[in-house]
Amino acid sequence: MRHVAVGAILWAAGGCLSEQAFEDRYIETRCAEQAACSPIGDGGDCQDFDIPNADNCDFDRSAALDCLNGEWVCNLDNPGFEFTVPPIACDIVCQRAADVGGR
User: Fold this and answer.
1) Highest mean pLDDT (candidates 17-21, 61-65, 91-95)
2) DSSP percent split of the chain into helix, strand, coil, nearest 5
3) Domain-wise residue ranges, the chain
4) Residues with Cβ < 8 Å from 58, sequence gap 6 or more?
5) In terms of C-beta density within 10 A (0-12 exposed, 13-18 middle, 19 or more buried), how is residue 72 classed?
6) pTM value?
7) How confident is the model at residue 8 (pLDDT cuts 50, 70, 90)?
8) Using N-to-C axis directions, what is the helix angle for 2-13 and 19-37, rounded to 10°?
9) In the predicted structure, residue 41 carries a pLDDT above the cut 80
10) Quick one: CA dihedral 37, 41, 47, 53, positive or negative?
């Protein structure tokens, strides 16, 4: 239910989602999801995640919204080392220029 509420808020604000706003919301969402996935720890490293392909970014607003509103999965394969896996859409928010025609 929490995911639905967060998604609805992000979707409503998404109409004017800029690249900088996405980066801020991505970190906020990633930190919240990581805290829910693995509540043990100080959470200090949650902001160390990089936006995939952020250098030389061809920002895709639709993919950004899908990333923020998608299902974040908690990988529980190794107890004590749980981590959050963001939606696949997060990987294509910033396509490298070479991947989209070499601009």
Assistant:
1) 61-65
2) 55, 10, 35
3) 2-100
4) 94, 95, 96, 97, 99, 100, 103
5) buried
6) 0.69
7) very low
8) 170
9) no
10) negative
Question: What single DSSP character describes residue 72?
Answer: P
Place of tokens 């693995």: 38
What does the alpha-carbon distance between residue 94 and residue 22 come to, in Å, rounded to a whole number? Answer: 11
Which tokens belong to 12? Answer: 């409503």
Provide the token pair at 40: 């043990």
Would you say residue 67 has pLDDT above 90?
yes
Which token pair is 61? 């607003």
> Which residue(s) pair with 83 in the sheet?
75
